[in-house]
Design goal:
By secondary structure, the chain is mostly helical. The chain has 2 domains: 183 residues, Protein of unknown function DUF2935 (Ferritin), CATH 1.20.1260; 123 residues, Ferritin, CATH 1.20.1260. 77% of the residues lie in helices and 0% in strands. It has 11 helices and no strands. The longest helix is centred in the middle third of the chain and has 33 residues.
């Protein structure tokens, strides 16, 4: 059973990463509907603001509690996040809560004293997040069902909708396990996380490939190569997970090296988009979003590598 301290810290660290991811999912969905589906646009906006509230409370509770490694990993925010939010807000006219990013930048890690009051606040936060995740998962599933039945058009790929449903379900699963005070079995978790995030990285590469301007031939080729590489790593992780074999150092090293490379590719691409040097239909915040997910996965891989 998790200690009080580990429960609080792990809950807050999970929300710091995933609540921002979810609010951005809602933002990307919001941008993708046609005028006919204005009710969906409005609902996406409501969900985005509700996740802002989750993230806001998380930031308040996190100072001096969460690990320094989390704050330094680039998964909470990157050097591009604030500028990407401001430019995305300028392009869309949607007001993004940049003050949350500024507040996150001021967080300090550590082992500040905790008490029962903070524990209860985190329990309440976790329960709110689980309920809100029910809402956004159902919303995403409804959109996907309508798109696949040709009842709705959105600029978001069906695979992207499946992709963000999977991420929301993972977030919810992690929080439910924390509420149960479950201790993670790291060996099994390692293969599950590798399978999940290698697949995510493969899909990121394919989304980037499909959103670049056709004239960006070199970047398209690089993205395509990453997609193929991570498809292979996904299959290798699935095999390891299904066979429940002992730790495979080579698989972890291969995933680590590939993720470092795609992280660098995403960072260069995000900078290029912000500087108006990359031709694409990628909203700036999407570039930073995928970069943070690569940073998150890199931190996990480094943990697994040293087990």
């Amino acid at each position: 059973m998790l200690s009080r301290y580990d429960f609080i810290r792990q809950s807050l660290e999970t929300h710091l990463f995933f609540a921002r991811i979810m609010k951005e999912h809602a933002f990307f969905l919001q941008l993708g509907f046609t005028p006919r589906d204005s009710k969906y646009t409005a609902r996406a906006d409501e969900l985005r603001i509700e996740f802002d509230d989750i993230l806001s409370d998380t930031i308040v509770f996190s100072n001096g509690i969460v690990g320094r490694d989390i704050l330094q990993s680039g998964e909470v925010i990157t050097q591009y996040t604030l500028e990407a939010e401001k430019l995305s807000s300028f392009y869309t006219g949607i007001k993004i809560a940049t003050k949350l990013t500024e507040a996150a930048a001021g967080l300090a890690g550590g082992t500040a004293p905790i008490n029962q009051t903070l524990e209860q606040r985190v329990v309440t936060l976790d329960r709110r997040a689980v309920a809100l995740l029910d809402d956004i998962i159902q919303f995403k599933c409804d959109i996907l069902a309508d798109v696949l039945a040709c009842k709705m058009f959105t600029v978001n790929y069906p695979l992207l909708l499946e992709h963000i449903i999977r991420e929301a379900k993972l977030y919810q699963k992690l929080i439910i396990r924390l509420l149960r005070r479950e201790v993670i079995q790291i060996q099994r978790e390692m293969f599950e996380q590798e399978y999940f995030w290698n697949r995510i990285m493969a899909e990121h590469a394919k989304f980037i490939r499909g959103l670049l301007d056709p004239s960006e031939e070199e970047l398209i080729k690089t993205a395509n190569d990453f997609g193929k590489q991570f498809d292979g790593l996904t299959e290798a992780a699935k095999e390891a997970m299904d066979m429940n074999i002992p730790k495979r150092n080579q698989l972890i090293e291969d995933s680590l090296e590939a993720t470092k490379n795609i992280r660098d590719f995403k960072a260069q691409g995000t900078a290029g988009i912000l500087e108006c040097k990359v031709k694409s239909i990628i909203i700036p915040l999407l570039g930073d979003h995928t970069l943070r997910e690569a940073n998150h996965y890199l931190r996990l891989l480094k943990i697994y590598h040293h087990i």
